[in-house]
Amino acid sequence: MSTFKITKSFVDHVSLPEKGQAFYRDSVLKGFALRVTQGGSRAFILEKRIHKKLKRITLGRYPEITVEMARKEALKYLGEIATGEDPIANRQRDAVSQLTLHDAYQDYKRVKCNLNPNTYQQYEMYFKGELKDWMNKRLSDINKDMVLAKHNDILSRKSPSYANVCLRVVSAIFKFAKFNYEDSNGHSLFPVNPIERLGHMKAWAKEPRRQNIINDSQLPLLYATIQGVKHETISDKKTVFMDYCVFLLLTGLRKNEAATLKWEYVNFDERTFHIVDTKNKDPLTLPMSDIVYAILKERHAERMNDYVFYTKKSGYLKHTDLLLKELVDASKVQFSCHDLRRTFITVAESLDISMYAIKKLVNHRGGNDVTQGYVITTHERLRAPMQKITDYFKNKANIKLEHYGADKAH
């Protein structure tokens, strides 16, 4: 292997390769070399075996650093290697040790760019709220005692669910850091997730499972209020929201799945609608019951954009908290959008509909149920159960086809 005495004059006049890059190794300091590219870029490197593996370390680009500066830097690395150190791993650890929670979150977003935008909106809410004072803290400085103190502090002012989710968001960043930041030997630079202290000490706050549903005695009052608001208001958004609430009750969809439904996924000929973006990422095709068909036909006649439940400003129905509060106040029925889904599932179970069918209707996976994996349920097999549930609500809530134009449903 040819070697050269690397000097300033040598670097200035070195021949450029016709393609790719070329290496010129120094005859004075073993391992010291000059890397030259076809485009004329010059950089000093050090080649040395570290823990039996040949490593190439970039010392700096010329002329940002001189030959003399590069040689001194190479000698520092060689000194560390001689004492058994891994200078590459050391510098990686030094760089990553300065990484803040904010820095790691930015990397998290770049890598996990396929997550639902609503997930990031939730993360931002916590990072700009209760976790704001942690954003500029280094990951390496967030310890287990701080985690317990933070969790207790949030619990003193917020709900158990809020406190738990706050720390689970931080835990997600630490899990990401564990596998994303590694040294040159593949060892994690953040092997410990301090949030795990809450689990080890059984310190997660107990979250009472929500059990609220709309009972049979409340259904007529709620539906009558919905119809009253719909026929008295001059607000398009209120009208859309009223239909949206009935649609949620009769389909059991999650609120965002229904709100983002587009007309291109509604098939009136087949009487089906298709949800592409679901919580568990499994696309869902459902049959329309007679009332659902009528609602969609009426919405279609008044369509304004690509979304079934449209708004003029935001495209699809969102930021509905105020509309929901007005409906709750007017009807005196306390409920959330998710309570409509819970009511749908409860009614379905009360009608002795197959649990497999219910899971398909609400897009729940079977977990460890091996048998369910062999049961193929098409949307046609779900049509009768879907209509049976709608018939129940028609009877209990006094929902009628003519409320949506009975002629459109045939």
TrEMBL record:
Stored InterPro entries: CB, DNA_brk_join_enz, Integrase-like_cat_sf, Integrase_catalytic, Integrase_DNA-bd_sf, Integrase_DNA_bind_dom, Integrase_recombinase_N, Phage_Integrase
Signal peptide span: none
Domain called Tyr recombinase: residue spans: 208-387
Superkingdom assignment: Bacteria
Family note: Belongs to the 'phage' integrase family.
Gene3D superfamilies: 1.10.150.130, Integrase, DNA-binding domain, Intergrase catalytic core
One GO molecular-function entry: DNA binding
Domain Core-binding (CB): 96-178
Xref: Pfam families: Arm-DNA-bind_3, Phage_integrase
Keywords of the record: DNA integration, DNA recombination, DNA-binding
The protein's name: Phage related integrase
GO biological process: DNA integration; DNA recombination
Provenance organism: Glaciecola nitratireducens (strain JCM 12485 / KCTC 12276 / FR1064)
